[in-house]
Amino acid sequence: MNGRMAASSDRIMLGPLVAAIDQGTSSTRFLVFNAKTAELLSHHQVEIKQSFPKEGWVEEDPKEILQSVYECMERTCEKMTQLNIDISNIKAIGVTNQRETTLVWDKETGEPLYSAIVWLDLRTQSTVERLINKTPGRNKNHLKHKTGLPISTYFSAVKLRWLMDNVPEVHEAVLSHRAMFGTVDSWLIWCLTGGKTGGVHCTDVTNASRTMLFNIHTMEWDPELCKYFDIPMEILPKVRSSSEIYGLMKICSSLKSGALTGVPISGCLGDQSAALVGQMCFQDGQAKNTYGTGCFLLRNTGSKPVMSDHGLLTTVAYKLGRDTPACYALEGSVAIAGAVVRWLKDNLGIVQCSTEIEKLAAAVGTSYGCYFVPAFSGLYAPYWEPSARGIICGLTQFTNRSHLAFAALEAVCFQTREILDAMNQDSGIPLTQLQVDGGMTSNRLLMQLQADILCIPVVKPSMPETTALGAAMAAGAAEGVSVWSLKPEDLSAVTSEKFEPQINPEESEYRYARWKKAVQKAMNWETTEPVSNGNGETSIFSSVPLGFYILGSMFMLIGAKYISGRHN
Question: Per the record, what is one GO cellular component (predicted)?
């Protein structure tokens, strides 16, 4: 009896709770936090299947994404019931999501009109090359003054353009005014607030700033940008702040999670912005690096957008309230971080599960001169080179799978070093330590390697779910909810672990220089625009080396025939 009383009194003690949907590239989570202490009380995670229908194409199923959210909610609510935590104490729900991933659906049927094209996808490379060739001076930064972004396969506008050009269902739905475009946050919020029966079609400023259709100065969809990509503005979601009530949850009442019906969805942040908030980087100059599928270093630059001279993006960090000014960030984006481990597991089979990589790499403690540049989707910051491809170099007969595993972990660290260097050059104030988060930070060898390669300490919070925490904070702090205070004095202290550099800087610099050499070898590998001979046909002589090779071979054959003829 006493145990039950204690449990019920615990339940009263908890006070208001806030939940977060964290829909990432490789998995979906639903997490519940205590709004007063920021303690994680319960969560559930489901992996998301990625499909690669053609080389360079990356897709996910919008219905599977939605279903995974429902499943995570249901399982978490079941776990909370077992823990004797009252679900009705959840006062708000925040959404955070993989950014740029592009969806189009039919507002009358509620059905997706195509797969979700994932941010990593490269099918738009020829579109991007065509757009850049149209700009004065073939300048990929032609739209940067408005968007903060280079013209790249990474952002949503080119993916949406591809859908409109290549998927008849999308083209027809746009013409008949039935199409809705959105990034993952928009799709989820629309579905969770009623879908075709009154669902709210919105996005927040952080997600909007990753489309190439949003003006980061006026904080609105830009008619000129929409015209540039020839995208009708009516299909775009309404842009809102990152912290306000967008709508109320509608869930089937027969489910455990049916208890969430009527709870406001009141926070929305792209995953990297959410991690910045979750790491409490509210001051100009504070930064964090998230190790997920990709790797993303964001530095808060305050209320003014700062343009980079070193290949970084200018992005909206957050806008915590309708009448609150927006904050901006400089961002270094790396396409492949955790994805390299998934590739070693799924494609090469050298590990059975992702956690094995640490053990395998630690067995040798060195890459033995092997360097791995995982440019599977070209190179992002600071190069923005879509024609780069993955390369493994420095192999000898001595190299084994352990060295390859070590080289893969080093690759994540070297890529972070490149974007950190760019950030230090842009800001003029070098970071003295790096705050980190994300799934890969549980790999202690990676964290130590990162400190060694950066030559500064790496600081990891004990609670790794900072992305979800950021979304929960935005939701709990929203006007009309107000159960989470974001005042500096009210933010709970975070316990963390620090990794100090353990190798001498000379060795670190030597390895970094070798990495840079490997990166150069990965460049200009794949171009999609074949050279035409004027009749619309591609000539074998469009490749100069191939042309020389063929001509040379012909002359050699003729010469050989001539010589053999003389000897007969």
Answer: mitochondrial outer membrane
CA distances from 421 to 305, 332, 416 (A): 19, 10, 9
- Does residue 284 sit in helix, strand or coil? coil
Report which of 470, 446, 61 is spatially closest to residue 242, judged by C-alpha positions: 470
For the ranges 248-257, 274-283, 351-360, the lowest mean pLDDT is seen at: 248-257
Q: Which helix (H) or strand (E) holds 395?
A: none
Taking the CA of residue 475 as centre, how many other CA atoms within 13 Å lie in the half-sphere pointing to its CB? 37
The pairing of beta strand 27-34 with beta strand 40-47: antiparallel
Q: Worst-scoring range by mean pLDDT, 184-188, 273-277, 451-455, 530-534?
A: 530-534
| pLDDT greater than 60 at residue 6 | no
Residue 34 in contact with residue 469, Cβ under 8 Å? no
**Helix or strand or coil: residue 551?**
helix
User: DSSP state, 487?
Assistant: -
Tokens standing for 191? Answer: 């579905």
Beta strands in 232-294 (DSSP E): 238-240, 243-248, 264-270, 287-291
Query: Can you name the residues that pair with 112 across neighbouring β-strands?
Result: 105
